[in-house]
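Residues pack. One example:


***
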Amino acid sequence: MKQLLALLLALAPLVSHAQTVDDGESRAEQLFGYLLRNQSDSLYDALAEKVKPLLKRVQLKDALAQAEALAGKYVKHGPWTSSDVADSRVYQSTVTFKNAELTALIGLDPGGRMTAIRLMPPMVLTPEVDDMPLPNDAVETDDTVRTSPLIRLPATITLSGRSPQPPMVVMVHGSGALDRNETVMGNQTFRDLARQLADRGISSLRYDKRSFVYPSQPVSSMDDETTLDALAAIALARTYSNKVYLLGHSLGAMMAPVIASRADKGQLSGIIMLAATARPMLDVVNEQLQHLASADTTTITTQTDIEQVIGEVRRQSPHYFEPQHQVETAQVLSLPILVMQGGRDYQVTMADFQLWQQALGHRSNVTLLSFPDLNHLFLPGTGTSTPQEYLIRQSIPSPVIDAIEHFILQ
């Protein structure tokens, strides 16, 4: 999982009271100061009336401490910049912690009322290094995933030129507010996959996640988080290709069997699951935090620290902990399934992969592959995996691409 569950750095939306557009930056600074000083009552008192019913005062406590538990001590934050996102004016600042940099995001609606405040991994990378160029015979174009009249998600279609009617892969993200490239620190997993698959004769569709496009809208279910938008993306992909595959990563992989079970008959030709959780989410998150504590990369050092972080995440995003029955659902699917796992992944581990092996290993429609040297982003490394290695720009190695190509084109 990424962000909220994988890196456990995203925070639930908080909102504030009215202000003018002219003093937006100063108001953003004031509200961020409340967060830094743990003035949760001031934050709650600043909530827009329409949002107050969605949050409790306790949910606003210790926001900075939660980020510091994983990113190290707060050091400083930079100037505020702003841009229009959907129905909000969004203010952003780069926040430096001892072990990582995060983005502070504060959104204001047209009336000057604040719609969101979050700490999350950087939404925008430094100028993109085009080390994964688009193949010469491929084309990229923009489109829109339309889940409903009010939910419109910008998308990129990568069309391979290697065949007249190439198959298409729909990419479904992990948890949190992720862009269409699934940008995590220094890497863009979905962009890299799209470019490499295009070179193998496979087209793809990737889209900005709903929580990325509409950061002020609360997410209270897996339907809102992932499923409904993925189904809409599949429908769009069918207008480009009559052979569509669903590729989910992390949370998207966990939900892939559920999404496939709800897709119209014949819409999908198969599903690809990269780092799919099989165990209850509480066990997964606890294991992630235990790993980070033992790796000495965060300020989490005791079981009390771990329980506090888990408690806050459960209060802010309870839908992540609701059973999804992904294993049982996968067992009754008849379409082809490819399950892939990195051996160095500490976020979704080989314990999950072994459960998939036990549940699906005897099925003729299922292929299960593990890669000992790869981490959660399917990037190579050695030794203990930590969030800091995600800062290093790498490319997904060819054996992973080979496996996806063989699964689709066999």
